Description:
The chain is an alpha/beta fold. It has helices spanning 4-24, 44-52, 62-68, 89-95, 105-117, 144-152, 171-193, 208-213, 223-226; strands at 33-36, 56-59, 77-80, 98-102, 122-127, 157-163, 199-201, 218-221. It has one domain: Alpha-Beta Barrel (TIM Barrel), CATH 3.20.20.10. It has a 6-stranded parallel β-sheet. The protein has a two-stranded parallel ribbon with strand order 1-8. It is globular. The two termini are 15 Å apart.
Amino acid sequence: MVTFEQFTGHCESVLARIKKACIDCGRDPSAVRLLPVTKTHPVDAALYAHRFGLRAVGENRVQEAIAKRPLAPADLRWELIGHLQSNKAKSALQVFDVIQSVDSAELAARLGRIAQELNLKRDIYIQVNSGNDPAKFGCELSEAPAILEVALAQPALRVVGLMAVPPLADGNTAAERTFNELRLCRDALESRFKIKLPELSMGMSGDLEIAIKAGSTCVRVGSSLYGARETV
Ligand SMILES: *Cc1c(COP(=O)(O)O)cnc(C)c1O
């Protein structure tokens, strides 16, 4: 793990990258938030983020968030960015403020029903496999409207936008295509359903500039802030 001083330096350089990427494409830097990804790291990673002034962290496993969250300040928000199995829907709703990885109509319905039973309101993103990568989670582009329709019918859920993870090895072209497809999907859903889906969660340590150019509003950054992860 990095020290807090190292983390501060890394944060400042990532924020500078975000700012430059925004300026380069004529966007307002305040329209892109940095979500630090603390998965596999000790709880100190989340404490650093909070101490630096960031308001949320991203985790990809329910169990890991359950272990860490009680050790962190209560006003730090926790967002799920990894695949959610439906049998963990209840725990996920209890430990996460935001679920970015809703990828089926069944999961959306289940989350909506359980959130209502628990009297919770949750922001969600629909995760779309807009890079068409068989190795990635996320719904097919063609399934997004049906999932959105189910999610919009859940009073306990608020759909704020879409999330995507690009194919790993294909380099910048695939990332660019994945991000542009996600934005086009969002635009199509907005006009079809006559709603606003303001958030596009896309971009990580290696491709945040490409994502910002394509319209990202949330970059999820792990290794550029905390260094390489131990094996998961
Ligand atoms: C791990 C992870 C990230 C962060 O990736 P880095 O390359 O370390 O910045 C972002 N998004 C998701 C969904 C992840 O699982």
